[in-house]
TrEMBL record:
One of its GO terms (molecular function) is glycerol-3-phosphate dehydrogenase [NAD(P)+] activity. Its main location: cytoplasm. NADPH binds at S12, W13, R33, Y50, K107, A142, R257, V281, E283. It comes from the Bacteria. Its EC number is 1.1.1.94. The lineage of its organism: Bacteria, Bacillati, Bacillota, Clostridia, Eubacteriales. This is Glycerol-3-phosphate dehydrogenase [NAD(P)+]. Belongs to the NAD-dependent glycerol-3-phosphate dehydrogenase family. PROSITE patterns: NAD_G3PDH. Keywords: Cytoplasm, Lipid biosynthesis, Lipid metabolism, NAD, NADP, Nucleotide-binding, Oxidoreductase, Phospholipid biosynthesis, Phospholipid metabolism. Residues 182-322 form the Glycerol-3-phosphate dehydrogenase NAD-dependent C-terminal domain. It is an enzyme of class 1 (oxidoreductase). The active site is at K193.
């Protein structure tokens, strides 16, 4: 009998991954923070709030006790939002051992510190865990994974053997996993695409067309790549599944909560109201603040991110933000844009 796999977080993505792992023949302990939610999902065999229509197999055991969820596990899948990653790391710390592989699935930065999530995990977990931290990322909506629609992702980490083990537990004929050892690049790509998705949503809310969306996606990828490379990422990562693939699906699908939030902002609704309406975490808001900070720190020009920051945090009118983007100084498409002293990134 294989040791159970722990999935921490019973939202849409955690539930979808638990179902996938169960279909692959694994026993799964799915941990839910809320005891009432745990009992309801267990009784219904369905997560009606976050992933309706997907039946949860008997191999998935719901639990509200994190120690119980982690009993005898080799793999811990963290499926909580970015702001909860440190808390989860602190909770699992007493129960990890040298063979434990921790798989993060959140895409974002820690609020206030602007740390990548692997950095947060490494701050809280023992040194012997550091090489066994992995990230599962790429173009993937929980709603489609739950229905066994063909999906391809990447697993990133510092250790190839750990990445291969993650690849083995997840792969099946509907779910293909590639290995990419550029952890920095995969993390940054997965986080920063949410900023651009908010922007394409705003464009849709303003009533702009496909030309605008294509421009935002293409130039958004350019600035994401610039920032990633400045932090040591491989530029090829950004043309792969974790970069271009995830960017396209997040910017074009109504499954994307970042795009849906952006549409409401473009229609004139206040950010606070939009976030209340969503009912789930919109990672792109915090990521915009983090990306703005990191771009300034690295001296990298990110015009779309800058305008998103002005719209979200300084109340700039979205149409005026578009004008600012369209009337920037002339440049060549392939130029790397870096800030020099006194330069205005707009």
């Amino acid at each position: 009998m294989k040791n159970p796999i722990a999935v921490l977080g019973a939202g849409s993505w955690g539930t979808a991954l638990a179902v996938l792992l169960a279909h692959n023949g694994h026993e799964v302990n799915l941990w839910a923070r809320n005891q009432e939610q745990c009992a309801t999902i267990s009784a219904d065999k369905e997560n009606k709030k976050y992933l309706p229509g997907v039946i949860i197999p008997d191999q998935v055991s719901l639990c509200n006790n994190i120690q119980e969820a982690l009993s005898d596990t080799e793999f811990i899948v963290s499926a909580v939002p970015s702001h909860s990653v440190r808390e989860i790391a602190q909770s699992i710390c007493p129960y990890v051992h040298e063979g434990t592989i921790i798989i993060n699935t959140a895409k974002g930065f820690e609020p206030k510190t602007h740390l990548r999530l692997s950095q947060v995990l490494k701050e809280e977990l023992p040194d012997y865990c550091h090489d066994h931290i992995a990230l599962l990322s790429g173009p993937s909506h929980a709603e489609e994974v739950g229905k066994n629609l063909p999906t391809a992702l990447v697993v990133a980490g510092d250790c190839q053997s750990s990445a291969e083990k993650v690849q083995d537990i997840f792969m099946n004929r509907f779910f293909r996993v590639y290995i990419n050892l550029d952890l920095i690049g995969v993390e940054l790509a997965g986080a920063l695409k949410n900023v651009i998705a908010l922007g394409t949503g705003i464009s849709d809310g303003l009533g702009y067309g496909d030309n605008t969306k294509a421009a935002l996606i293409t130039r958004g990828l350019a600035e994401i790549t610039r920032l990633g490379v400045s932090f040591g990422a491989d530029d090829k990562t950004f043309s792969g599944l974790a970069g271009l693939g995830d960017l396209v699906v997040t910017c074009t699908s109504m499954h994307s909560r970042n795009r849906r939030a952006g549409i409401q902002i473009g229609q004139g609704k206040p950010l606070k109201q939009v976030l209340s309406n969503m009912g789930m975490v919109v990672e792109g808001v915090n990521t915009t603040e983090a990306a703005h900070h990191l771009a300034r720190q690295a001296g990298v020009i990110m015009p779309i991110t800058e305008q998103m920051f002005q719209v979200l945090f300084h109340g700039k009118d979205p149409e005026n933000a578009v004008i600012s983007l369209m009337t920037r100084s002339k440049t060549h498409e392939g130029e790397g844009e870096m800030l020099s002293s006194g330069n205005d990134p707009l």
